[in-house]
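Re-run requested by the PI after the first attempt was lost when the workstation crashed. Everything re-entered from the original request form. Ligand of interest: zinc ion.
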Amino acid sequence: MAQTVTQEGAPQDPAAADSDLPSAEGIRLIERQVETALAEHPDVLDAAVVFRGGTLEDAPPELCVRCGMDGRYPGLELDADSGVCSLCTMYDEHREEIHGYFGDVDAFTARVRERAAAAGSDYDCLLLFSGGKDSTYVLHQLVRLGLRVMTFTFDNGFISRTALENVETITKALGIEHVTSTRADQNRIFVQSLKEHKSVCNGCFRSLLDLANQLAYERGIPSIVTGLSRGQIIDERLLWFYRQGDFDAERIEEQLAVGRQIYHRVGDQIGSGSDQAVDEVEVVDYYRYSDVTKDDIRALLAETSQLWSAPKDTGFCSSNCMINDVGVYVHKLERGFHNYESPTRWEVRLGHLARAEADAELRTPVNIHRVKSML
Ligand SMILES: [Zn+2]
């Protein structure tokens, strides 16, 4: 269960006015204390406390001096002397183990080819292809590696027209068999996702993975390849284990496989059709095996620029999805920090993204008019 708690900070007596409001430092302390107390409750898995009506909105946030992470991120501690955040310190202390989870492209190719050979499949893999920057880069690499690829796009109803055109242009030029699917009740899933997670992405990934899993299973393709960045891989798959003090790559991988089975069987959204589809299809993150920087990705897209145009209608954090900004807006409002804060700061720690660029991405305001019309 995710729980968000709002503490109204406005004074009861209007005459008491500003002088009774705690200082920015006092507000942060209150937020921390309430958050810590909530997190100790056995039924609370996650909590973010946002003080409303105080002076904090005007005060500059405390930031990690190294990665720039917002000190309001739940559970993050900034060292009083050095100003370095607890996640940067964790990375320093476990750098080798953390990198032990990642591999190289040869390991990726071998893994995907072996599984395809064992299954006797016509394709080596099904790529989740959004038409955005990261998955477009992956598609070019898979083709260059000589892999037999089919691509899948989930149109959540808010995918930029430019991104959908990119998908058509690239797959046609590369001679790739491509499938785009939609879901009639996706808006309901978005609403549920916004309520539960204060983000649209959770509900979208869920539909995407369920549909892709079913397609891969029906076509006998044993591997689904994602374009999740290393920052997203750490944030979404690994950080939970790190917080329990577990950095063992093999053990984490085993538990992730179990987690995936549960993920597809729990919840009332949609089933994957059959349990067998989940058992027989594996999800492989391409960037787990590739250490490219964001600059490398941009360089390749520039090289193949006749096949890819940057969408102009998607906000700053996404290169394919227009509803993404709704998630950014709601998350910031209700949880007090950007929903891309954690994965983006991991990109900085891993050396894939310059800090100034991360700051620019996370501080670009959303287009409120567009967000409200979607809401
Ligand atoms: Zn940091």
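Saved to the shared folder this time. Residues 165 and 210 are 24 Å apart (CA to CA).
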